[in-house]
Nitrate ABC transporter (Acidihalobacter aeolianus), 462 residues
Amino acid sequence: MAENTAGGRSRLKLGKRPGSELEQRELTLGFVPLTDCAPLVVASELGLFADERLDVTLSREPSWANIRDKVMMGALDGAQMLAGMPVASQLGITAVRRPLVAALSLGLGGNAITLSRRLFARMQEVSGDELAQRPRTADALRQVIGADRDVGAPPLTFAVVYPVSSHNYELRYWLAAAGIDPDRDIRIVVIPPPQMVARLRAGEIDGFCVGEPWNSLAVQGGHGHIAITSDQLWRHKPEKVLGATQEWADRHPHTLRALVRAIMRAGEWLDDPAHRGEAAALLARPEYVGIKQPLLDLPLHGELVFDPGAAPVAQPDFNVFHRYAAMFPWRSHALWFELQLYRWGQVEAAHDLEAIAAAAYRPEYYREAAEALGWACPLIDYKPEGLHAGEWQLAQATPESLLMGADAFYDGSRFDPQDPVGYLESFAIAQHRVLLDTLRHLNRPRSSRAARMVDSAGEGTS
C-alpha cells in the first residue's frame, strides 16, 4: 500500500496522486506550544503535507481560547485541540454555538500536575516519606488544606489550561481520589500553558496541570515538583485531537482526508525512537515551542525529572503518537470526556450521550487512511477502560488483531461505555446539575453494533 521515498518516508500508492480532488489546498492550522503539537510540526517540516498536495501554514496561538474562537470564526481551518473541545461544542456549552468534530487523535499522555516548592515542602512536613513514593497521592495535600481551613487561611489556587480540558479533569480526579472536593476545598483558575511557570514562580498559584514541556521547565528552574503524570493517573490516556468545525469538515471531505493521512504518517515517524531527538530539535525552534532542546529531549525519550536537582526517572510511553492505535479517535474517549462535564456540573441538561459522542468524534477518516497505509485498525468505536495493567490485543481489528497499551486508572476504577450513568454514580465527590435518573432514562442500553462488539474488544495481560 505504500513505498519508501529517498528520505525514508512512506508515500501513498492510491492509484492517482492525491490533490486533484482537493476542495482547498492552502490551509492554516493552529497549535499551542506544547510537546504534543509534534505531529503537526513533523507533517509540515518533513513534507508530509506537501506529499498530499497541501500548502499548510502552522499558526502558533497563545491559548486554547484563541484556538476555539479562531476555528469557530473561520480564521483557522483546523487546529490541535483539547480532546474535550468537540464534545463541549456538540453539547452546546461553548460561547459560540458552532459544533466541532475530531477527525483524529494526536496522541496519548504528555501532561503532569506540578506543585510549588512551598506547597510541596508543607506536604513533606505532614507526610513523612509518603511523597518519596510514586505515583504521589494527594493525601498530604488534604492535610495541608485542612490545616489552612482550621486557621481561616484562603484556599490554595491551582491552574488548568481550559475549563473543558483533560488537565482540569486530571487535576480533579487526583484531588477527589484523596477526598478533596475541587469545587469547595481549593480554587481553580484558567491560565494559558506558556504562562504557567511564571505564575507559579510569582506565587500567584500553588500548582498547575499542564502539558510538557512546562512541568519540566518549572522543575529545572527550581520552582516546582511534579506530583503525578497523566499516564500515572490513567495509562495511555487520550490528550489532543485534530479538530475543525463540522461545517468545514462536511464541505472539505477530501482535504480533511489528506490532512489525516499526512498527520498519521507523522505520528508513525515520531514513534520511531531514532527520530525523537530530531523531533525535539524541531520543537525547540522559536516558531514552535521555543525552549531549549534538552527540556524536550527527556520526556520525548521517556524520562522525567520530578524534583529540582534529582536524577531523571524512566517514564516509558510518556508521549505516544502512533503505537497502540494512539491516533484513533475512540468514541468511548469522547463519552468519557462527556461524563466529566456531567460529573463536574458543566452541563445543565440531559442528552443522548452516545449521539453526542458520535457527532463529536469521527473515526471514519482514520479507518480510510489506515486502509490506504496498510495499518491494522479497530473495527469498533467504543472500548472499556481500566481493565488492563499491561499490553493487550484488540481482537476486533482489521486485517489482524492490534496491540494496545495498558489502560489502568490510578484509583483502580473501570469505565464501561455501555453503562455511562453507572460510571457517574461510582464517584463519591461530584457536582451533578442533572438528575442521574433522568440521564439514565434517556440513555437506556441499546443493542447497537458498537455496544455488542465492545464486550469482546480483546484479551489482555495484567
User: Anything to note?
Assistant: The chain has a mean pLDDT of 93. The chain is about 35% helix and 20% strand. The CA atoms of residues 319 and 362 lie 23 Å apart.
